[in-house]
Each structure stands twice: as structure tokens, then as C-alpha cells.
Amino acid sequence: MTIHIITIDGPSGSGKGTLAARLAEHYAYRLLDSGALYRLLGLSLFQHNLLDNLTDEAALKQCVTIALNLDIEFKSNSQGTQVFLDGQDVSQQIRTEQVGEYASKVAAIPELRQALFERQRAFAQQPGLVADGRDMATSIFPEAQSKIYLTASAESRAERRVKQLQAMGHDVKISGILANIEARDKRDMERSVAPLKPAVDAYMIDSSDLSIDDVFELMIRYIDRS
Ligand code: DC
């Protein structure tokens, strides 16, 4: 039986994470948070002191080996998902801006993207999968039956991110966050491998002026007819 795959691609702060989790719950499907994989790899390479060496061939080989053997675990409960790296709970740590930067660096390296390919494909299991990322429809699951591209203006994404970080107890300013978002968007969209862009057959949603509930309704309507 074919596995129903729903992909949600788009920039960070568009509401993808929240909506992907809601869709996975609604359909009782598995959830792939591919950004978390890049964040975990970024954190691991930082811990191994390898992040500044990504252009060195021998060091890159070592990074690929680390990527292929990453010891990670996702544990879901009613509070959300806990993420473990080498047995340590890094759920909070991987959500910081700093680890986001590490992830963005790692994500620009073709060999490291390739090393995470099979790990992502392995999430596709019955009864179905909601895959959240940047290249889910264009590279990892081109066969997906339901492809969504969710975006929002950089300003509204920065506002949401500030609220999220403040709720986590961080003291942040919108100007810094907006500059980070714009720099990361540029890097994600301009990289030569798997750049952030909609699949040709993606259903496009701009969430700038929509509530999460409105976007969820649009998605369900699209998925149920696709
Ligand atoms: O969605 P996020 O902010 O957790 O993603 C972290 C970084 O990883 C971001 O810079 C984009 C990158 N990423 C990617 O290149 N491909 C994916 N499928 C998911 C994330």
C-alpha cells in the first residue's frame, strides 16, 4: 500500500513546525522535523570542534561519518517532542539562534545533506508521514501526494520568533532577529544544493495575515482533495 506523504516546506517562522505537528496529530501520521536533524548535526559538529573546518577534505570526511552515525532519538508525549543527542536531552538547546546558525552552515554542504538523506527517507512509514523542512518536496520525497509551501513576510516571522524566544525566557530584540532571519533566508535560498524553493506542483500559502487555525483549515482542505 502506498504511504501517504505530506510535505511542508518553507522558511523558518512561517508556522511550519506548529502546523506540521497539528497535521500529524490530525491524521495520526508520523512527523519528520528535518530542521531538527540539521540542528542536531550542527550541534554535534560544534561539540567535536569541526564546524570551522568544513572546507577541509579530511575534516569533512570525519563530519560525514558523524552525520551517518548520529545517535539521536525523538520521544513524543503530550507536552511535545523531546530530542536526545548521545543520550542527552538537547530539546531546548537545539532551538537557540546559535544552533540555528550551526544548522544553516551544515545545510549548505552537499556531502552532509546527502549523509542525512536515508535517515529522512526512513521516516516514511504507514499509515503516513508529515515531513517538515526546506527540500522535502523537491529532494527528499518528490513522490509526496500532498505538497505544501508555507511562507510569510520576514517581518511577521521575526515577530513570531521573538514571542517564541521570550516565552522561553530569552531577552531578545526584533532588529537582531529580523537581520538573522534575512541572512538565513538568503543563505538557504541561494545555496547551490537543495535551495529553499517551492516544488512546481506545491500548494502555496502565505501565512503573514492568517491565524494558525485559518492555515490549518486551508491545509486540510487541500490535503483531503489531493
Ligand atoms: O527549520 P529550522 O529552522 O529548524 O532549520 C534549521 C536550518 O536547517 C535552516 O537554516 C535550514 C536548514 N534546513 C535545510 O536546509 N533543509 C531542511 N530540510 C531543513 C532545515
Structural features, described:
- The protein is an alpha/beta fold and about 230 residues long.
- It has one domain: Rossmann fold.
- Helix content is about 50%, strand content about 20%.
- It has 9 helices and 8 strands.
- The chain has helices at about 15-25, 35-45, 55-70, 95-105, 110-120, 135-140, 155-165, 175-190, 210-225, and strands spanning about 5-10, 30-35, 70-75, 80-85, 90, 130-135, 145-150, 205.
- The strands form 2 sheets. The chain has a 5-stranded parallel beta sheet with strand order 2-6-1-7-8. Strands 3-4-5 form a 3-stranded antiparallel beta sheet, covered by helices on one side.
- A hairpin with a 2-residue loop joins β3 and β4.
- The chain is globular, with a radius of gyration of 17 Å.
- Bound molecules: 2'-deoxycytidine-5'-monophosphate (DC).
Strand order of the largest sheet: 2-6-1-7-8
The quaternary structure here is single chain
* Gross CATH architecture: 3-Layer(aba) Sandwich
Bound chemical compounds: 2'-deoxycytidine-5'-monophosphate
